[in-house]
From TrEMBL:
Descriptive protein name: Chaperone protein HtpG
Subcellular location: Cytoplasm
Region (A): 1-342
Family membership: Belongs to the heat shock protein 90 family.
Keyword annotations of the record: ATP-binding, Chaperone, Cytoplasm, Nucleotide-binding, Stress response
SUPFAM superfamilies in the record: ATPase domain of HSP90 chaperone/DNA topoisomerase II/histidine kinase, HSP90 C-terminal domain, Ribosomal protein S5 domain 2-like
Predominant cellular place of this UniProt entry's protein: cytoplasm
Entry-linked HAMAP family: HSP90
Amino acid sequence: MAEKMQFQAESKRLLDMMVHSIYSQKEVFLRELISNASDAIDKIYYKALTDDQLVFEQDDYYIKVVPNKEARTLTIIDTGIGMTKEELENNLGVIAKSGSLAFKSENEAKDGHDIIGQFGVGFYAAFMVADEVKVLTKALHSDQAYLWESQGADGYTIVEATKDQVGTTITLKLKENEEEENFDDFLDEYQLKSIIKKYSDFIRYPIKMDVTTSKPKEDNDKEFEEVIEEQIINSMVPIWRKNKNELTDEDYQNFYQEKRYGFDQPLKHVHVSVDGSIRYNAILFIPENRPFDYYSQEYQKGLELYSNGVLIMEKCPDLLPDHFSFVKGMVDSEDLSLNISREILQHDRQLKLIAKNINKKIKSELKTLLKNEREQYEKFYESFGRQIKFGVYNEFGTHKDLLKDLLLFYSSKEKKLVTLDEYISRMPEEQKYIYYATGDSIDRIDKLPQTEIVADKGYEILYFTEDIDEFAIKMLVNYEEKEFKSVSSGDLGIDAADKNEDNEDEVKENKEIFTKMSEILTGKVKEVRASKRLKSHPVCLSADGEVTIEMEKVLSMMPD
Ligand code: ADP
Ligand code: MG
C-alpha cells in the first residue's frame, strides 16, 4: 500500500484557489498540460545540444491526446524528458514550484527561452475538470517508472510502475457533469480539436489525435466508411515565425480567413519582426470592409496576444489605439511578463512599447498605401476614414499630427478626394486660407450662395459632408500653417467680400425692410444686413464667431 503524502499546507489552499478562481475558462487546462509536454520535449532538445550520447530525432517527439468516452478519461501522452521520483515530489507535490523555471536558470547560457513554464501552477489546472489525476512517468536515463496519483486537496501517492518509453502519460478522470458545466465536451473529438487549435496551434511539436473520418471504400469509391486516422492537429510553425520572403499574399490571406479575423479579403497585411530592446513578431491586417457593428458600442478592438506561440488573450485592446481600431491580427512576444494564470499581463511596460511600435507601423503602412495605391487607399478610407477623423478630433495633442496627412476630403476640383497636401500644393500664392464648405451633400454645397465668391476666385473648396469633418478640422486649426476657413465665415480673406461689407447707403435706404425682416425672423437670425458677397443668389446665411451653422446643427442634436 502506497503511503499517502500530504500537499504542503500552502499548497492545499493554493490548489483550492486554482480549481475555483485562477482561470477564467476551464478549457485552458489542456493548454497547460500541452505546454508542459512541449516543455518536457524541449528539455530533451536542450540536453541533446550538449550531450553527444543523445541524438534528437525530430520524429520521435510528439504529444498525443486520447479521449476515452467509455472510461470518461482524457489522456495526454508525451515523449519528453519525464520525471524521476524526486522530481515528481518536488514539481507536482509542491504547488508553485516550477521545475521548468529551475531548468531555464540552470541552462540560461543555452538559450532555453522557448520553455513556457515558470509559475509551477499550470499542472493543477487539471483539477478544474478532473477529480482524479494519474501521472505515469519515466525519466530520461532512468530504468524505473513511477505513478503519481491524486484526487485533489487531500494529497497524492507515488508508487513504482512500469512504462517502456521515456516520457509522461497523464490521465484525467473527468468530473461528472454539473448543471452548468458539461465535462463531456473534453471527450468530444471536435471540441478537443478546436481547443488545441485555439491555444496550442503553434506548439513546435506535433500534437496528435485519433480522428474519425469518413473515406471512400477501397473497392467502391461511391460508398464511404468510417475510419480512424491519426492526425496532427496543430500547424506547428506559426506563419509569423516564417521568413517573409517565403510567404505569398495567399498565405497571409489564408491565415486571415483561418483566424476568422473577417469574412472579407484583407486589403493589406504587414508582417513585423522586431528584435531590439523588445522582441516581438506581429501580423497586422487592414480589412477591406467595415464590420457591420464597427461604429457601434458592441465592436471590440484588439489583437490576439501570444506568448511564445501560446495564446494568452484573444483580444488585447491595449495593443491598438482607438484611431486604428479596425486593424486585425496578432502579436507574439517572448518578453512579456505574465501573471500566474498566464491570461493577464503583469506589467504593461512591454505591452506599451509594442503598442507604440505597432501604431507607427500601421501609420506608415497607410501612408505607403496612400502614396502608391491610391485606389486601394480610397477603398480603405470609405470604410474607415470616419475613424481617422474621430482620431484627429479625440486625441488632440499627440495623435492628430500623426493622422492629419491620412485625411481625405472631396474637393471642388474635379469632385475627387484630395489630401490636405494636394490642396496646399495647388493653392495660388495669394490664397490665404484652406476653404471648406459644410452641407449634407456635394450637390447641396454646390448650391450654397457662400461658395460662389470663393469658387469665382478660382480657389479650391473642400466639401465637408460628414458631421465629424468640421469638428476634426477645428482641432487641427491649420495645416502647414494655412488656417482652415469656412466659406460662410464673416472674414473670408478675399478683398471684395470682406470689410466694409455693409454698404452704408444701402443699409440706410433699406433700413425699414431690414428691420421688418429682423422682426419676422426673431429668434432665428441675429440681424439682417446688406452683403457684398452675393452674386447670383439673393440671400445667404452667415455665421458669427467660431461655430459655423453646420456645427450648430450637430451640437443642437447632441444630448445635454
Ligand atoms: P510550470 O509549467 O509553470 O513550471 P506546472 O505546474 O505546469 O508549472 O508544472 C510543474 C512542473 O512539473 C514543471 O515545471 C515540470 O518540471 C514538471 N512537469 C509537469 N508536467 C510535466 C511533463 N509532462 N513532463 C515532465 N515534467 C513535467
Ligand atoms: Mg506548465
